[in-house]
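In this section we walk through a basic example: taking a raw amino acid sequence and producing a predicted 3D structure, encoded as discrete structure tokens. The instruction is simple. Fold the sequence below.
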Amino acid sequence: MKRSLDNATLVPFFFVLVLAILPVVFLILLSFSRGWTWPDIFPSSFDARAWRYVMSPHSGTWQSIWTSLKLALITTFINLFLALPAGNALGRYEFPFRKLTEILLMLPILVPPVVILMGLHRTFIRLSITETLAGVVLAHVLPTLPYMIRSVTVSFSKLGFEWEEQAQLLGADWSKRLFHVVLPFLMPGIIAGSALTILISMSQYVITLLVGGGQIITVTMRMFPYVNGGDQATGAAYAVLFALVALILLILLDLSLNRLYREKRL
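The resulting token sequence is shown next.
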């Protein structure tokens, strides 16, 4: 049964909530400010100049959003294609050097990314895939694939072979076992890995800048020059827009997961 929050729980809950909300409020105020100097608590004046520019057709914002989404979705599909067999092997089978294999697959998030990125960039130059969408997608796969592998590995380890064997004993062929047993069981892990992949891919700036060579423009590529160049209002507007796009994607994934659980309960 559900219980109401007690005082001992409310205090840290509201503390974390305030810490999460304050940066968003700061960004929203900054995006509408004409000047905000220290030690003013609030901007001296407000203006929608930054938002008018960000939303204007000639700013290239919508093209950059589409590019970010396209990169994230393609990266997610490639990660699923690679992570499902890897997660199946790591989660349900015992083989020599299994732990070592898992550590090697996790290396992109264990080794400093700059070290990997420099070698990756030189390799892509030799393969003539820098400044291309394909090159940036492959570069985004590297830091995101370990999260997808880990997510589906946990799901495969919980699945085991028992559910498939019971379905086989009841007469289900391989296709029915796949679509009615395996995939529904793996879906939470797939959604979790996809959410991490999308968010990390959309957040990449250095990788996109170095491999894309300034030819592949994402939302973060448009945001950082304004932040570093002194136009903080426009940079804040791009940051708020980026957060909104990411939030919408997370809500869609959450709705998909809730729908899946409702169908399983029915």
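Looking at the output, two observations stand out. DSSP finds eleven helices and two strands in the chain. The chain has a mean pLDDT of 82. In the next section we compare this with other chains.
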